[in-house]
Amino acid sequence: MTAPARLRLAGIQKRFGATRALRDVSLEIAAGEVHALIGENGAGKSTLMKILSGAHAADAGTLELSGAPYRPESPHDARRKGVAMIYQELTLALHLSAQENILLGAESSRLGFVDRRASRRRARAALAQLGHESLDLDRPAGRFSLAEQQVIEIARALLTQPQVLIMDEPTSSLTQADTERLFAAIARLRAQGVSIIYISHFLEECRRVADRYTVLKDGETAGTGGMRDASLDHLVTLMTGREVRELYPRTDRAPGAVVLEVAAAASPPRLRRASLQVRAGEIFGLAGLIGAGRTDLLRAVFGLDALAAGTVCVVGAPDGRAAPRDRWRQGVGFLSENRKEEGLMLGRSVADNLTLTKLRALGAFGFVDGGRQRAAADRWVRELRVKCRDSRQPAGELSGGNQQKVALARLLEHPARLFLLDEPTRGIDVGSKAQIYELVSALAAAGKAVVIVSSYLPELLGLCDTVGVMCRGELAAVRPRAQWTEAEIMRVATGSA
């Protein structure tokens, strides 16, 4: 490295019982450098970052910060020493306001009292760095969308003016426009000499934003180098030990009868008007900015949110007031973007999560046949290659990608004929993404209808047959995939078309 090292790690090891999470990891980052940390789920990235941020202590190895030994005793101690982390799973106090969350533990004070005016200025300045200065500081964090909550989380980390800032999947819930604002903020922080560790499964983002990279595989450093000289194929090979030749498979399929028809649907405050048709064997993608109404449309179709106007017709049966249990009976499956709080019961087993909607069919006289339940779960664990000890392991102990596979497998076990998938690949590695893309494509080839909400435009353009773009609560345009480009999607999404 040409610049002095801001952060240096050598020979880092960490064991949890019989599991060796980190075997031998080395990493070196210069001042003002953006360093991409890449690897599949379970490669050791999160464990390494928890060591850096003070949540865990390393069993062996050395850590140096600005040339001095670095051994943080807690996350608070790490922040005090200049290392801040933005976790992939948000850590907000949802009942507190956006301002209270941003300033939590770092409020401005005067004569022993909180200086509310100074605190508000600092919170607003942190949001301004991300292009969100107009965000309502007095609104409870729980009333913001998942993407807006992530903006609040990032602003809280920026407030401490860290020497090293760790970003774990910072764009996983952001749209393209918000991602661009984040990249602009990263450029400003880099110019100020802040070192940034950037963890993302979006390899195109890593290549764009990072100066250098380190790839972890099975708890070890698999490779490191300059990002400018690294191809996507090379990074994928380092991560997986194999080549992913075709990330977006195109199966032979012909759209059939209409499975879902939505006419002038409205569900205030975000969903103002949307009309669409989805056919059997079709993958329909929904693009748009944060708050444009994409998630609201899926929730209204599934019956989670009430319709104020319009109709939803599933397989020829109009029912605008259907509850989720009615949609399940009609063969509609819904995958929430928030798997942590809505998609899974993290404290229950993989088997319980997989069979939750079919427990009655797996037993008799009010009791569940545990053997039949595990057999059903084990089948999907094998078929989807879910990495777990067995189907009795709690879902909360799995990696994000494997949790997502469990959530998807529940829809397959049900089984559904219309799949509503909200950000199905958020926060998961490229290997797991490839498996989910294969699964979705196979569902369409088998005559299932699929609706996908995604903030990752290459995913929509690579996987979908039809793409619709939401703008300010309205479905502004629906076209075949071949008639869209990323630039055109953004023009429609921002109302510039």
| Topology, number of strands | 24
The spatial strand order of the largest sheet comes to 6-9-10-3-11-12
Number of discrete domains? 2
The residue ranges in which pLDDT falls below 50 over 5 or more consecutive positions are none
Short note summarizing the structure:
The chain is an alpha/beta fold and 497 residues long. It has 17 helices and 24 strands. A six-stranded mixed beta sheet has the order 6-9-10-3-11-12, sandwiched between helices. Strands 18-21-22-15-23-24 form a six-stranded mixed beta sheet, sandwiched between helices.
Q: How does this model look, in words?
A:
The chain is an alpha/beta fold and 497 residues long. The protein has 2 domains: 5-240, Rossmann fold (3-Layer(aba) Sandwich), CATH 3.40.50.300; 258-493, P-loop containing nucleotide triphosphate hydrolases (Rossmann fold, 3-Layer(aba) Sandwich). The protein is built from 17 helices and 24 strands. The strands form 6 sheets. Strands 6-9-10-3-11-12 form a 6-stranded mixed beta sheet, sandwiched between helices. A hairpin with a 2-residue loop joins strand 11 and strand 12. The longest helix has 16 residues, at 176-191. The protein is globular, with a radius of gyration of 23 Å. It starts with a strand and ends with a helix. 48% of the residues are buried. The model has no long low-confidence stretch (mean pLDDT 86).
